[in-house]
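name: query_chain
kind: protein
chains: 1
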Amino acid sequence: MDSLDEFFQAGIAPADLATVARLSDAWPYLSVFITLFRGGDEEVLMRLLVLRELGSQTENPFWSPQELAQRFSYLNPIKLDTILKRLREGNLLVWQSDSGLYQLSEGARVALSALSTMIDFAGDDVELGYLTSQVAAGQAVGQVSDEALKHLLARLNELYAEFEEALESQSEFRIRSAQHRLEAVWRWVAKSTEVVRSLTASEELSLAVLNQAQAIALAQSRMLALAGTFARRLAQLSSQRVHLGVSGLTSTDIADYLRHQAAAPLAALLPGCLSFCPEPAFLSAPEMADMAEFELLARERARAADHTLPDGAAAPEAETPEVERLLEAEALYEILAKLDGNTPMSQAVLAPTYNETAYRMSLLALLGDPEIRNDADVMTALARLPLQLTGGDGIVEPDHPEVASLSDARLIAPR
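structure:
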């Protein structure tokens, strides 16, 4: 077996490295995990099963060999003895010779606590939720881990890179999937925001932890700005859809249908859609003469031809292409441009139908978007309106045949 010194360059003492020393100090607890996860998948699974069953016995944390055999009567006795022996050798299960009883060691309790948090955790982004819970737990007991903050910051940066990549792909399906992912993990981002706010308010933090907390706050603000970017980009893509006659279908609907089909149904749609050129299995004299004429005459004529570029000329003027008008967006812009003072949001977005109202609600996310470009379309005009949404803690119930309730947010315009 290689010694620890053999893993390092000559002249470097492992004991002088802070990271190695920290791992060495924690070796009694790390060896517990080595015992648990050494071997095949089935062996590891059964060790975890037995250990978790023993850890759940809170009223009586001491067991005799007979009680263990009765507790795990559904297991093969020989396999059970092997598992218990491995737990004893790894110092997870301690034998009290005076009382003749077994009990779990301190390292086993620590391992069970860490494993229960990971196993029982559930959510749309398990990693982000688990990391946030670790930081929140450390903040609650006043012992925040610098490494836990680094892991949380790294995960936030990874998510931001994934969302940015989806936006750059210009794929409506990837952007919608990323938007749903952002909404799914948003509760963990909000939770980590509360933790970071509490950390930065403390005067007892070290400079390293404070720097990590500020970096996390910056990463969260960048993700917050993506919410408006997703809405704007989807609105741009929706204006580029191709409508298929009067069927009500668009190119997006067809693409989504094809994406969800298996290989066999797609193959069944191909007959009659593709044309195949026949491949002749013969070669006659006329074809050979044509090829010889090209190689001997036509190729030489092409080489001797004059390939001088013509003189430059002004390009012909082209008419400005027509741009599809967004009538609903223009109607909302006309309403918002006339607002003066404090106006309920329902007065601006409520339309005759639910679909129109929902569309107007989605356009409000463009107000004040800092990433809007200097375009001359109605989306740019909406983003530049000097309006701000405030309130929204309650709901109102308008007298409407399709809309049951709306937020009580208000639109504030400068006087």
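note: The chain has three domains: 4-119, 126-238, 327-412.
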